[in-house]
Design a protein that fits this description.
Largest sheet: none
Order of helices and strands: HHHHHHHHH
Helix content: 55-70%
Number of strands: 0
Number of helices: 9
Structural class: mainly alpha
Strand content: under 5%
Distance between the termini: 40 Å
């Protein structure tokens, strides 16, 4: 019974550390080895099989996370500002013609002075106020862009919930992004949380043969997947679609 119990304990630990690259796979393999030895020595099959199942899930998850993190790191790049040099236009020289003298004719003497009309004052057109400039789009830092790419990879590969995705981005054992960058990523990632909850529920059903209520508890647990109650309800409703 000792090896079977050890396989179960190590399998649970492997399941908890499954999201840690490489380390989760090592612990998962250890759980599988202990479970196989326990079965060969005729110890408790239930404990050994559960330990093997948890170790297998942890190993697969850790390998997938390692691949996803490597892809995210390779794709991260820092945008360099492009300087634009404006060419100044050369002023053109305008040729001015010298004014020509105008000959004036002598006015003939008149018997009575002629009244001239008073000049009419004209108003200059009012200058139009310049249209306000459109606000410039805010710059997004390189850290925010990298956090968003990592969030997209975790959502598409591991189908994480919004809360668990935030934990993974800020974890000291995970991506170690700042809280601001992680919040920007989870707010702007293109993810269908209902679809993620359904995919996670199907994994629990296929890999561990859990009941719908057991899956619901795992989906909403603060120590599990951290989906919302509505997202868990959607997953359970469409579990057998």
């Amino acid at each position: 019974m000792g090896l079977a119990l050890a396989a179960l304990i190590v399998g649970i630990a492997a399941f908890l550390f499954g999201l840690i690259p490489v380390f989760g796979a090592v612990v998962g393999i250890a759980a599988i080895v202990l479970g196989v030895f326990a079965l060969r020595k005729g110890q408790s099959k239930v404990l050994a099989i559960v330990g093997i199942a948890l170790g297998s899930i942890a190993t697969i998850t850790s390998i997938v996370v390692t691949i996803g993190v490597g892809a995210a790191v390779n794709s991260a790049s820092v945008d360099e500002p492009v300087s634009i040099v404006a060419e100044s236009a050369t002023p053109t020289n305008q040729a001015y013609s010298a004014p020509q003298p105008v000959e004036t004719a002598q006015a003939a003497p008149t018997s009575a002075p002629v009244e001239t009309a008073a000049p009419i004052e004209t108003q200059a057109p009012a200058a139009q106020a310049p249209a306000p400039a459109a606000p410039a789009a805010p710059d997004v830092s390189a850290e925010y862009k990298s956090a968003l790419r990592s969030a997209t990879n975790y959502s598409e590969i591991l189908h994480l919930s919004k809360a668990r995705l935030y934990d993974q981005l800020t974890s000291e054992y995970g991506e170690k992004f700042s809280a601001e960058a992680a919040q920007y990523a989870v707010d702007n990632v293109q993810a269908d949380w209902n679809a993620n909850a359904l995919a996670t529920a199907k994994n629990y059903q296929n890999e561990m043969s859990m009941s719908p209520e057991g899956i619901r508890d795992q989906l909403t647990s603060e120590y599990g997947e951290k989906f919302t109650a509505d997202e868990a309800d959607y997953a359970i409703t469409h579990l057998n679609d």
